[in-house]
Amino acid sequence: MSDRLRRTRSGPALVGAVAAAALVLAACSDANTGDGDTSNTEPGSADLQPGGDLVIGVTSDPDTLFPWRATQFQAVHMLGNVYGTLTELDQNLDVVPGLAETWDVSEDGLTVTFTLRDGVTFADGSSFGSEDVVHSLESIRDEETAAVASSSLARVDEVTAPDESTVVLTLASPDAGLFANLASVNLAMLSSDDTEDALNTTPNGTGPFTFETRVPNQSVTLARNDAYWGEPALLDTVEFRVIPDESSIVSSLQSGNVQMAVFDDPLVADTATGSNVNVTETPQLSYHVLQLNARRGPLADLNVRLAIQCGIDRQQVLDTAALGEGEVTGPITSPAYRSDPNARPCPERDVERAKDYLAEADVDGPVVLETIVSQGEYATSVNEAQNLKAQLDEVGIELKIEPLESGAYVDRWVAADFDAAVALNGGRPEPDGMYGRYFTSDGNLNEVAGYSSPELDELFAQGLLATDDDERKQIYDDVSRHLEDNAVWVWLFTSYTYTVTDSSLQGFVPMANGSLQYLRTAGFAG
Amino acid sequence: MLDTFLHNGVVQRVGQAVFTLFGVAVFVFVMLRAIPGDQITANLGTEAAALTPDQRASLEAYYGIDQPLIGQFFSWLGNVMTGNLGFSSRAQTSVADLTLQALPITFELAVLSIVLALAIGIPLGMLSASRPNSPRDAAGQAVGLAGLSIPAFLLATTLMSVLAAQFGFNPNGEPFARLFDDPLLNMQQMLLPALVLGFGVAAPIMRTTRTAVLEVTSDDFVRTARAKGVPPRRLQIRHILRNALVPIATMTGLQFGYLLGGAVVVEQIFSIPGIGRQVLLGIQQNEYALVQSTVLVIALAFVLVNLLTDLLYRLIDPRVRAA
Fold it and tell me: Under DSSP, is residue A142 helix (H, G, I), strand (E, B) or coil?
């Protein structure tokens, strides 16, 4: 999962959608709204018929078909069905075997031996083996390839293949996060015979579906891979149909042209009413945050940051900006390592304490923070910024809000040219992958994160060494505490995605990382 | 022969057109570079912050943005001259192919919209003009005002949502059908967008018609014709409307030109893969060559439509021919 912001353009069309919905709501019955609890929804457990063609409504074409460089939501999740990875994540985001059937870590943590699955083939019929793994991992590590996940392999020194079904990774230092990272489609296994140019038009993977056709700006169609190594999918085909306007996707769900769509704007999901559609809410790993740049101006002072931390009622931001659709969160959103949102200075808003912190701060004159906000990239950004501004005004801190078009926002963000940034960042199933690159002093996003400390460096290093689950949980709790006590950023809330499906479509399980991998267990009932 | 051309100003017009197109090319080139970010940040978003300098250099070479700006401009322009409009790395196909797919769709939508607009606008304008400041004039004007002031996106989303939710009618939820592949479905898919656009364009046509008809009605020849006993219907159509056609044709040509530029909002809502969406996607992704070439094609179409409108005057009005 990347940190790329999800694209939900809710342009002027939304106004029309709301107006139209008001008309329609009056006449329509309620949608069945699930509670997002997937624990009793086993993938593919329903009594489903093989066959059928599923149409998924998406707002945009994938912007690339090359998995190592895909960061766009639509591209990542479409390609996730076509390509295979060494490890995979199950519905609870726990690491499970993928193309590697088993793996073994040496005592010192520096040698990892993967045993590959037998009889796996690529879509073009060629067989998958250890030389493909070596080729893939080496190419990803090569800077020339410009693979977005190359840093996930930063601790890998050497990749060798002693035989056809064994791959050995030699690490410079232990890396307990490696196995979760390897499940990303950005680390997909490609055939050593393929070239980037070929794969740009004809993806060739080992996944449960094979790429069939693409009509640029209109659709991508996948077909079931009958030679898939696991349980073959039920659906004959899956078409990702581009319908650029979200309210038009809702219309297409209601008229039955489309049987599935994923929205992240609760306003749009609310309009998806009708007796034939189900809506499932799924809490997401991505988190809404006020990023602070602790290396600039008044924010270098811990007391100013703590004043901000104490001056904000997160539930109020959630309620006003996102209709209360979400949950207040601490730094880590990975299910197995989730931070306790109350373990922070001022779990409740405390304006008096905030003012005390500000009084103790060593700053001249009023605190004014240049705050960048991405306009239109996701629905709630500007509302969040306005609420934060109103709350901090009461403390005596001024947020100078700069709403920016997404390209301008990304430029400023990448250059760390801001005091504060209202952001929606992607989360990961594993906390080192999620924050190591931000908060270790040599992390590739540390400049943007604006904070590092020897304690954090030490904690992240320990986290990679630890193999025991409880020990790791304790270490990342400490990371979380350190981030909150130093008010490094102000973590706000996580939101939901809304998976709207036709009631005849069953066996699909939405995931917290947005993955559509359970299309392979989905099918039509009756 | 050359004399005739010079006399008619054809050479001059063509020269002007080429100059205009060059201006458009420079303008679009500069404006695109003024948009913050580049194709790399458009593709990777905030993830671009994690790129190492070597990775970034490799991507810049891949997208061809490692060249100096002047070099980029003239190599693109040179390619366009030879018919190579560039390559879209996003769609993995040539811009010429994409444009050849999209332009006929937009052209069809523009023609249908204009036909609907004329069918609504001209009768309505004549109706209003037939008795100015009467209730029927007010009604006609009200429809015109509605056409001007109801935003296309509101009308489009409302129509679509209500028809889909209440009647299950949503041809635009089907994959787009091209005119010659499946004319029936194509017409269904074009119906609502053409109606929405046509309604909007009908308003200026209605107003122009009303003004022009009122003006012609007060001319001497109309009084003469009436005095000679020409029946009212014949008078309206053969005498008045015929003479009011020049401003109507001007307005229609202008609107048609705009429609050829792509009706982005309506194309978005109804999932019409036309030229407007192509440009919008190109801008969102900072695909420079795609946007530059497509805008140039649109500008060319606009210039051609204006030339054709000029020619049309000669057909409509013998006085222009003589001049």
Answer: coil
Residues of A in contact with B42 (CB under 8 A): 407
- Ordered by start, the domain boundaries in chain B are 2-95, 100-322
The pLDDT score that the predictor gives to residue B11 is 79
Q: Do A61 and B160 touch (CB under 8 A)?
A: no
What are the tens digits of pLDDT across the range B200-224? 999 999 999 999 999 998 888 888 9
The rounded distance, in Å, linking the Cα atoms of A437 and B46 is 13
Residue A409: CB atoms within 10 A of its CB come to 29
Who's near A346: CB < 8 A, 6+ residues apart? A309, A310, A353, A354
A3 contacts B46? CB cut-off 8 A: yes
**Amino acid symbol at A162:** P
Contact with chain B for residue A22, Cβ under 8 A: no
In A, residues 27-66, which contact B (CB 8 Å cutoff)? 27-28, 60-61, 63-65
Residues of A in contact with B151 (CB under 8 A): 12, 16
pLDDT tens sequence across B269-316: 999 999 999 999 898 888 999 999 999 999 998 888 888 888 888 788
Contact A245 B161 (CB under 8 A): no
- The complex's ipTM works out to 0.85
B181 interfaces chain A, CB cutoff of 8 Å: no
List, for residues B90-131, the tens digit of each pLDDT value.
888 999 999 999 999 999 999 999 999 999 999 999 999 988
Whether chain A has a CB inside 8 Å of the CB on B172: the answer is: yes
Class of domain A287-495: alpha beta
Cα separation, B277 vs B100, whole angstroms? 14
Query: How far, in Å, CA of B129 to CA of B125, rounded?
Result: 6
B100-322 CATH fold:
MetI-like fold (1.10.3720)
> Is any Cβ of chain B less than 8 angstroms from the Cβ of A12?
yes
pTM for this model (two decimals): 0.87
